Amino acid sequence: MEPQDAGAGATKTAAVAACIGMAVFYVAILYSPTLILRFPPPDSSNSFLKRRFICAAVSSIVSMIVSILMLPITRWDASSLLGVYGIRTDHIWQALAYPLLLTAFMYSGSFALKFLSMLQTSREYFESGGDLSVACIKSIFLRIIDWAVSTASCMSSWRNYFVAPLTEELVFRACMIPLLLCGGFSTYTVIFICPVFFSLAHLNHLLEFYFQRNYSFLKACQVVGFQLVYTVIFGAYASFLLIRTGHLTAPLVAHMFCNFMGLPVILSGRSGMVSLVFLLGMVSFSKMLFPLTNPHLYNSETHSCSCWHRYCSWS
């Protein structure tokens, strides 16, 4: 069934203009404390990151307000308004588990390499006379606890695994996608347009690499160019997840997982098995992409939908 528009939404031009404005504002506000408000430079990296957290939160709130004002909203209760952005508590376990499993397929090579490294480390440990004693198990457990505590107390970890994924998904998916869909763009056009705005928000890294890290202009362009390609690919995948499921948790958990894992391992000089497992994982990913994102898994009903509920007509 086709989604039913609840009145006239933004035009294509207005939707694109709003998305460009959100992308520019998301980056510009990060530099506003020192360049515009003339605040003194932060005295530590933690202070610097806290300031950026606040700026990202402000950007997200402003983008949400702009988006909601431009959309043809007919119900103004909290649940309906949050639902526009895909912020929901229903079907939460499906939105957590299925996208995470799907994304993990792309990291099959990374898991294989890690498994081979663990096997080698275990072999060396036992060959040196070590045994699997209670003390050994306790030591491994304590190391895991120490890693978890240090990660949870690290401000950079909060940025990479929580603040950046949350604010980026809110601005570049939850706010932009409804505008573009209601503006009249086709589903696949939106999937490939949104990553362009997402990549624009990473162009500031070119200046950071060139001026702050003293990279040559060519090297800075190469590094940022690679980042842009990666962000476009991931952005298309995240956009697909949100449109297909109607649940913000789906791209959010995928984003957090990818930030934690880094780039997928495709090749390894240690073993050709890594490449083989990676290929098998990508085959599994392609086979399960649509079944694991079936809208009926994430929504109790797919009728009486608004223009931003494109999953209603995408089964």
Question: What do you see in this structure?
Answer:
The protein is an all-alpha fold and 315 residues long. It is built from 13 helices and no strands. Helix 4 (92-105) runs antiparallel to helix 12 (273-288). The model is unreliable at 1-7 (pLDDT under 50).
What order do the helices and strands come in, and which of them pair?
Elements: H1 12-35, H2 45-70, H3 78-84, H4 92-105, H5 108-127, H6 134-152, H7 155-182, H8 187-200, H9 204-212, H10 217-245, H11 249-261, H12 273-288, H13 295-298
Helix pairs in contact: 1-2, 1-7, 1-8, 2-7, 4-11, 4-12, 5-12, 7-8, 7-10, 7-11, 8-10, 9-10, 10-11
Helical content class: over 70%
Q: How would the global form be characterised?
A: globular
User: What's the total number of strands?
Assistant: 0
| Strand residue content | under 5%
Distance between the termini: 10 Å
Précis, in short:
With 315 residues, this protein is mainly alpha-helical. The protein has 13 helices and no strands.
Structure keywords:
EC 3.4.26.1; single chain; transmembrane; hydrolase; transmembrane helix; mainly alpha
